[in-house]
Design brief:
By secondary structure, the chain is of the alpha/beta class. The chain contains six helices and eight strands. A three-stranded antiparallel β-sheet has the order 2-1-3. Helix 3 links the parallel strand 4 and strand 5. The protein is elongated. The chain starts with 10 loop residues before the first strand and ends in a 6-residue tail after the last strand. The C terminus is likely disordered.
């Protein structure tokens, strides 16, 4: 999908920037730091490099606020895999026109979708819901061809090995995957905070003239 057609409100790990000089860094540069739990530094100014995600307590990117009004112009609004319980995302389905079709693909009803005459609710997993929609539009073959060209393999529409798990086992697996992803971001933030605190507690050496000195090794 073209970047001009996509607003990632919570950002992504695909790009990173130095918080001081704003130099961009690739995912390949950041990946060893994510895996090793180390703090990345800018190779230009030495500043901290932050992944392009919105941490807890940070403001959503300007692109999100600039594009919210577009929802009122939409003819079709699709909501997938969301509880719609967090503002400002929870308000989006309500801001679209009464003439717009709202499609919910979700494990449960949410956001008041289903209360309007033209609302469509498809209960179940997102993957199967998207396949159902694509099949109704006669796009299924095109969708699967596109997916295999990107991923190299086609997922089992019936859920594969996961389909053999009980509901509780599937919920437990999903919970562990979510927790693992959150732990990566939390650990990264903790490491950065620890390094900043250590720097604040380490006084700089001062020469007789009263000017700060910096060690040759940068410590």
């Amino acid at each position: 999908m073209p970047a001009t057609k996509l607003v990632e409100a919570h950002g992504s790990f695909s790009s990173s920037r130095c918080i001081d000089c704003h130099k961009s860094f690739s995912h390949e540069f950041m990946e060893p730091h994510f895996a090793g739990g180390t703090v990345p530094r800018c190779d230009g100014c030495g500043g901290l490099v932050k992944p392009g995600i919105t941490f807890f307590g940070e403001a959503l990117p300007p692109e999100f606020h600039d594009s919210v009004g577009l929802v009122t112009e939409a003819d079709l609004v699709i909501v997938m895999g969301s509880s719609l319980r967090v503002f400002p995302f929870s308000m989006l389905p309500e801001t679209c026109s009464e003439k717009a079709v709202r499609l919910l693909i979700n494990n449960e009803r949410t956001g008041g979708i289903g209360s309007r005459r033209d609302d469509v609710v498809v209960l179940g997993g997102c993957d199967q819901g998207v396949r159902t929609l694509a099949a109704e539009l006669d796009w299924l073959q095109e969708l699967e061809t596109l997916w295999t060209s990107l991923d190299g393999k086609l997922e089992n529409p019936d859920g594969g090995d996961d389909a053999k798990l009980t509901i509780d086992e599937q919920i437990g697996k999903l919970t562990r995957e979510v927790e693992q992803g959150l732990n990566v971001a939390d650990q990264f933030k903790t490491n950065v905070q620890a390094e900043l605190k250590a720097q604040q507690q380490d006084p700089k050496e001062t020469d007789k003239s009263g000017h700060d000195q910096t060690n040759v090794n940068g410590n």
